[in-house]
Amino acid sequence: MLEIHNLHCYFAKGTVNEFHALRGLCLSVADGDFLTVVGSNGAGKSTLFNAICGTAETDDGSIVLDGQSITDWPEHKRARVIGRLFQDPMKGTAPDMTIEENLALANARGSRSALSRAIRAADRALFRDELAAYHMGLENRMKTKVGLLSGGQRQAMTLLMATIAKPKLLLLDEHTAALDPATAQTVMDITQAIVKERRLSTLMITHNLNQALTTGNRTIMMNQGQVLLDVSGSERSHMTIEKLLALYTQKSGEQFAADRALFSAAKAAEC
Ligand SMILES: Nc1ncnc2c1ncn2[C@@H]1O[C@H](COP(=O)(O)OP(=O)(O)OP(=O)(O)O)[C@@H](O)[C@H]1O
Ligand SMILES: [Mg+2]
Question: Around ion ligand 2, which residues have CB less than 5 A away?
Answer without folding.
Answer: 45-46
